[in-house]
Please model this.
Amino acid sequence: MTHDHDHEHEHEHDHADAGGSELSPMDLRVRALESLLTEKGYVEPAALDALIETYETRVGPRNGARVVAKAWSDPEFKKWLLADATAAVASLGYSGRGGQHMVALENTPQVHHMVVCTLCSCYPWPVLGLPPVWYKSAPYRSRAVIDPRGVLRDFGFELPAATEIQVWDSTAELRYLVLPLQPAGTEGWDEERLAAIVTRDSMIGTGLVKSP
Amino acid sequence: MQAFGPVLPEAGEPTFHAEWERRVFALAVAMGASGKWNIDTSRAARESMPPAQYLASSYYEIWFAGLTRLLLASGLVSAEELGSGRVMAPAVAGVNRLSADKVASALAGARGFTREIAVPARFKTGDAVTTLEMNPRGHTRLPRYCRGKTGVVVAWHGAHVFPDSNAAGRGESPCHLYGVRFEARELWGPDTTAASVSVDCWEPYLEPATVR
Model:
């Protein structure tokens, strides 16, 4: 492989390894770290695989959608969710890391809730999975607390002027789940059908549920 | 901080954008179970990057840098080992290694952050409180936009591990934690499109509202 560029400054580019595949500098550094930590006996690769598999395939917004669908269908569950979200959410099998202290925030026609972590990326993992890149990035982290309407325009929608926006900055270990408004025309739907219209972003406050 | 540009959501974005991101995520979570540092220390480590580097880094690049910082600070690896990728010294004793069969229970059963303390809560729901003008050198969870500002206690969450102490290795030092709601105009002036911003504040961040 020939290179035709100047070497006046440090820059990163892909190199072919012996097998002919491209490995980026981060690939190489991370592989080196993983093998060092494995050889030291500090980590077990199979545990790493299990962690990845958990958050790539098993824990995600389908969990939160079930919580919302149940709250829409079952008034007793909704009361419980608003009073003790940790217990109500755990009753559906979702608990633990990133969600030990859950709080549900109910949207109404007058109030729309939006959740952010201005300081890092705190997000309700057990019900929504790992946060998307935009949630963890400087634009959202800085602007959600100042201009949430502008942020919602970046997401492609506007709320009526009469709806006020309450923003929640997740500075402690409390994790917030937005309970979006149930759309008209979905009365009497079963929970599975309801869960299918609940989007991830509607449960953090930057999206609306899908129209029926 | 402001003016970071628009929020740019990526449609259908994957949980991880590269294989190395998966491995960094898993390494950080697994090493977080080592017993050698706590979540507050790990946040402090990530925040310790020089600002220009932090803002130019992707999320998992920040995690990688934070992890290597913690590994060095705790003496689990040496700088020479990190640079070469080779083990050069025996492993440090007393590192809890997460095994694959324990991953599910470690995640689902992750310990919460509430603690029992003898001292009663100083504030109650409805109290007007003012956040301290403070500028600590170390880790804190009181955002800069929220110092010297007056709001209302809307919730009491019991006593929680106090990050300012825990991150610095001074122990959990649990303090009463409150949800405090600020009128957005109080924080940002009349241009804000938020109605309110609610911030979870530990008792040391608060004093009774100063009369104005």
